[in-house]
Design brief:
- The protein is an all-alpha fold.
- The N and C termini lie far apart (31 Å).
């Protein structure tokens, strides 16, 4: 599977996340667009993902990349400062599909409110996942 296809798959997952509450606001789109630019994906390709059938999901292979993708999804879920029940459900589904510990994911969701703007620092997030994998 091509590297570009993997990137499009990850972006599609993020799009599914923001569409969970049936509202895509400008901040959510801008966040995904910023990630797409980092991945060297053109705006037109990103916009096509909103309209097209989603590519087959391909989870990242290294655990560190799966945790990074989970972190992106948590940030994305909180970007509009609301947590819709569908977003939380979808976040957990994505995490399980990536093979992440449900206990670690629940712990991250529990402590989000302890941080400004619900942004769990990456080192804290990694420590949580390490705890549940060791």
């Amino acid at each position: 599977m091509s590297d570009k296809r993997k990137k499009l798959s990850l972006l599609s997952e993020m799009i599914d996340m923001i569409e969970a509450d049936h509202i895509v606001n400008e901040r959510e789109y801008d966040f995904i667009y910023a990630i797409a630019k980092l991945m060297h994906i053109e705006k037109e390709e990103l916009d096509a993902l909103f309209e097209a059938k989603k590519p087959q999901y391909v989870p990242p292979t290294p655990e560190s990349e799966r945790i990074l993708q989970f972190h992106r999804l948590v940030l994305l879920m909180n970007i509009d400062k609301e947590q819709h029940p569908n977003e939380i459900r979808r976040l957990k589904e994505f995490g399980l599909r990536m093979g992440l510990s449900p206990f670690a994911m629940d712990r991250v969701l529990e402590i989000m409110d302890d941080y400004p703007n619900r942004v769990v620092p990456p080192d804290v997030l990694i420590d949580i996942f390490k705890t549940y994998y060791n």
